[in-house]
Amino acid sequence: MTVLIAAMGALLAFFFVLFTILFIRRSQSLDIFHRLRRHYVAESKGLRQTADFIQRAYNFVQRVAKPIADWNLSKKLDFALKQAGIPLFGAEFIIISIICAIFGTVAVYMMTLNATIAPLAGLSIPLMMCLWVRILIGRRRKAFTEQLGDCLTTVANALRAGYSFQQAMDVVAREMEPPMSTEFERVSTDIAMGVSLEDSLEQMNNRIGSPDFDLVVTAVLIQREIGGNLAQILDTISDTITERIRMKREINALTAQGRFSAWILIILPFVTAAFCWVFNREQMQVFINEEAGRLALGVAVFMELIGFIVIQRIVDIEL
Questions:
Q1: Residue 96: count of CB within 10 angstroms of its CB
Q2: Angle at Cα 273 formed by Cα 272 and Cα 275, nearest 5°?
Q3: Which of 10, 18, 113, 190 is most buried, judging by how many CB atoms fall within 10 Å of its CB?
Q4: How many C-beta atoms surround the C-beta of residue 141 within 10 A?
């Protein structure tokens, strides 16, 4: 029961951080109408006070994070957070993780009065935050790839209408949804600040990390050097990417049973163990109090992870 309470406390602290960051992102993306309404409509007084408090807390984090902004870890996190679309710097993310770990440790200790479990629960919060960033990177990359076919079609049509390539990118930034519009808007901003088109596209390609978009960047750079009909090239690439996406969806449908079996394999033993812990705790004490039981538990967990990884590798078919 103590372990369960500690895990719940750590999860609550993690989701509190998650929703705080999402609130900051949402408040930063509000348009002029909503910003004015937030300041002048009486019903929004509570929202304004909450936003002011979060902004003051964010300013405090910025000041504390300045000394560690030049760390290699901070720079690596900068890049990862850009890939995930999170409006934070790496140093700020480190400070927020440390603060959340401290608060999580204190909260779990107050609930359990266990000086061993509380630090472990606190350390689990930064790990969950890093896992959350990895998940967001994967989702954003997948969403970008899904939009890439329509994006290339839009750019090709704009080129046929007489637009330049940079003007076509502006059309994509205005007309399409994030993350596609966000990335092209960032490229347009870099070009406006003096960065060359080639370097801006290479930086965007590094942020996205998609082999499909790497093909697009390569085609654009080659066309700018030797010439050619860029609209026709983009149409051909768009058809290729659309076909690859269709094949990926078919493969995902055919391997859905295998992926579901992997999750059942990893979840079912823990559910069974929790059920036995509630209704037959004396028998489950063997796995905690006895050395042989702890060894068997460790071997079982290790084999579960191996089985999960093997199944995931089997159903993960790359095109």
A1: 21
A2: 65
A3: 10
A4: 19
How far apart CA 154 and CA 144 sit, in angstroms, is 15
Q: List, for residues 15-31, the tens digit of each pLDDT value.
A: 555 555 544 544 444 34
Which residue is associated with the tokens 């993960």? 316
pTM score, whole prediction? 0.68
Q: How many whole angstroms separate alpha carbon 124 and alpha carbon 143?
A: 28
How far is Cα of residue 8 from the mean position of the Cα atoms in its chain?
22
Nearest to 141 by CA among 80, 189, 186: 80
Sign of the dihedral defined by the CA atoms of residues 148, 178, 192, 155, in that order? positive
Task: Give the C-alpha distances (Å, rounded to integers) separating 140 from 33, 134, 241, 265, 301.
Answer: 28, 10, 17, 28, 31
How many residues are listed for the chain in this entry?
Answer: 319
Task: Give me the residues of the chain with pLDDT under 70, please.
Answer: 1-55, 58, 318-319
Of 104, 78, 141, 77, the residue nearest 15 (C-alpha):
104
Gap between the Cα atoms of 241 and 217, Å rounded:
14
Q: Which two tokens stand for residue 101?
A: 């770990």
163: Cβ contacts below 8 Å, ≥ 6 apart: 171
Rounded CA separation 137/143 (Å): 10
